[in-house]
Amino acid sequence: MNTEVKQSAALKGGEWLVKESSPFEVFTPENFSEEQLMIRDMCEQYLDKEVYPILDRIDAMEPGLMKSLLTKAGEQGLLATSFPEEFGGLGKDFVTSTIVNEYLGAGHSFSVAIAAHTGIGTLPILYFGTPEQKQKYIPKLITGEWAGAYGLTEPNSGSDALGAKTTARLSSDGKHYLVNGQKCWITNGGFANVYTVFAKVDGDKFTGFIIERGTEGFTQGPEEHKMGIKGSSTVQLYFQDCKVPVENVLGEIGKGHKIAFNILNIGRLKLAAAALGGAKRATTDSVRYAKTREQFKQPIANFGAIKYKLAEMAVKIFVGESALYRTANWIDRKEQELIEAGKPFSEALLGGAEEYAIECAMLKVFGSEALDYVVDEGVQIHGGNGFSAEYNISRAYRDSRINRIYEGTNEINRLLTLDMTLKRAMQGRLDLMGPAMSVQKELMSIPDFGAEEEGAFVKEKKLIANLKKAILMASGAAVQKLMTKIETEQEVLMNLADMAIETFNAESVLLRVMKMVDQKGEAASANHIDIMRTYLYDAADNVNKFGKDAINSFAEGDEQRMILMGLKRFTKAEPFNTKDARRRIADKMIREGRYAF
Fold it and tell me: What CATH number is given for 32-408 in this structure?
């Protein structure tokens, strides 16, 4: 296996929009090391052995069951992957921890519990804790002896996290903070031993605290009855003069937003990973059902309408996976760069996630919506049986829906994608002005009909370059026209974000396939080329539609006509028979009886 990735300087966050990437600088799942493949297999085996046989018991919330599963996972090292060796962790890189998230992501409610525990339940202490706090809590959390949870959301503050009403004031003897308020939708809340909770000191300084189960003044409500992820413990937390020792302040007073927002960056990427893991399992279930279910004296897998659905599942998964590991490797490399520059371990980890916060937001949107497509069409393929609790696809359908809500709603993540990109441009961290001016100049000039560049995938590379120009053109025009009002034009911002998501994914899958063809040849990569070309063909139309919707919202007259002409020019794709390509993609899965890419 060729695991080499050319280690030139990684692109900075958002730079993919204005710079070209080489396929040989992109990390893909084909680059997994032998150790990473072994860890992947261990995760799949854990679900097969420990989780799938008892899914009904998990959903029934059998007392002590979920905690015991976390403990067993801890015994196998699955909770310790990316934690430092000094605390008993395995010290693996970010890509490896992403693999764990993906391949445990198909475990329904268990996946939610383990992701919350290893992510928001543990990382705040690792990143922001004092040496004493880390030494006290991290070893217990990564072995599964203790379970972790995270209390940010309140009844009246979801997306507006800083609007929290929970307060904390120093006791008269100066030894405790007295916390008052409540938190809701707390994953693992019913059995966790330690919670990261946010409150406003003196009513205005948003601050993190570490609160242990059993602390005086701390109680929890009953388990919530939910539409999906039924086996995941979800409770409200109540604090009434809850006595938190001053040494349990997490990070600095008044700097809790740094904890909350940085943890969400990492959580978004890992949610995308878990969603893709769940999508692979649901796709395999749908393929197997389509092969065995007969109608009109033949398996429904023979019908074009079913093949379309199966192929589209594969396209979304393969594309999402390409973008996921491209980004995970960027984060990994940024972490190493900061460590080599002398930054403390926790600062380096935070720096990596912050640098690629834009990409994490895009991945979260696409991953959660790809899973929603897969399970929705999976139910359709199962027909009436898909609506029956006897078939696991109905559980997958219910469990999927929450992913578009937590870790920041998809609407918030779309808005953040543009907001962070524009802010970086204004801060000088990202040069958008130069490329945007070049696009404007190109629009005013006569198109170049000179000789085409020669080589593999030339037309695909040109399409990606043009889709980027479409984003720069539409975004630049929107900023010029709307100025400071752009923040209130959420529909426009979300259109522009969707243009970016489609283009980032399209480039990621093209780079992955170019690399595969270089290493294995076109014949061996034929199905992957079909996936890539199908996605690019559709992406061009999607970018055109999102762009038109944005442009028609703020431009009119001659200006509108000129920009729309530019959009049409930049989103023109070569004709491609996606029907036959999808049939070839589906046929491979039908032959193998599983998601096969």
Answer: 1.20.140.10
